[in-house]
């Protein structure tokens, strides 16, 4: 059973596999709930190489590895899961192909309807955002915290994403976010490990 609450780390775009591992390792040491491999600059060969390199590191730290966009690559590498957005194929088909054990996350943006469909199609978690202006995705559609409350009825872990920092994470957790997914707030911080600790503290200090 994977952890249903906590920090969900997403990797920054990094073309050097060596640098990617060096950046991710200190954060993995803090045992975040999940790590997603996401790289919008990599071609398919580099994505395969980087996801394969992250897998033993994640296993060593007991952190499930989620591959962004590509459930086939996730299945081929025997990763723990995949994250699918609106352009990343059919969730129902993916669930049918990978079986019940693999974690399949779904982007629901600002839509409860999308979340209902994702739940029907076999999602393991539902992700909403962007809750704040995101440096990684400045054009991302914005979502309101009330959506997290509304989605409680779907009885799936709720992920909040988009411009989340240790300073603005608490109200989202109070509104129902089980996991907060972050890229820039961690990897653009002067000390990513300290930033990761600060996110983790938000969960320890927020009760609902
Ligand atoms: C946890 C999580 N939530 C949302 C996304 C965004 O997925 P998508 O809309 O497919 O956009 P890209 O990440 O592929 O640019 C995500 N990756 N992870
Ligand atoms: C990849 C992604 N998806 C989003 C959505 O709203 O679905 S926002 C986003 C960017 C997340 O990075 P940062 O923590 O740097 O804002
Ligand atoms: Mg995607």
Automatic annotation (TrEMBL):
This is Thiamine-phosphate synthase. Coiled coil: none annotated. Residues 7-185 form the Thiamine phosphate synthase/TenI domain. The gene is thiE. It holds the Pfam family TMP-TENI. 4-amino-2-methyl-5-(diphosphooxymethyl)pyrimidine binds at residues 36-40, 68, 107, 137. Its EC number is 2.5.1.3. It comes from the Bacteria.
């Amino acid at each position: 059973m994977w952890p249903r609450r906590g920090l969900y780390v997403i990797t920054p775009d990094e073309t050097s596999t060596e640098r990617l591992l060096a950046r991710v390792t200190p954060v993995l040491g803090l045992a975040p709930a999940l790590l997603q491999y996401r790289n919008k600059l990599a071609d398919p060969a580099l994505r395969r190489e980087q996801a394969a390199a992250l897998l033993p590191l994640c296993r060593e730290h007991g952190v499930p590895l989620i591959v962004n966009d590509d459930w086939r690559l996730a299945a081929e590498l025997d990763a723990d899961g995949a994250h699918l957005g609106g352009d990343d194929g059919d969730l129902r088909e993916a669930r049918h192909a990978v079986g019940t054990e693999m974690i399949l996350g779904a982007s629901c943006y600002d839509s409860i309807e999308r979340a209902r469909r994702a739940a029907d199609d076999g999602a393991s978690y539902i992700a909403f955002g962007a809750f704040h202006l995101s440096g990684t995705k400045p054009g991302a559609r914005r979502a309101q915290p009330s959506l997290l409350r509304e989605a409680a009825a779907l009885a799936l872990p709720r992920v909040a994403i988009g411009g989340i920092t240790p300073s603005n994470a608490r109200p989202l957790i109070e509104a129902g976010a089980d996991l907060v997914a972050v890229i820039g707030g961690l990897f653009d911080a002067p000390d990513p490990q300290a930033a990761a600790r600060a996110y983790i503290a938000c969960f320890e200090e927020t009760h609902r």
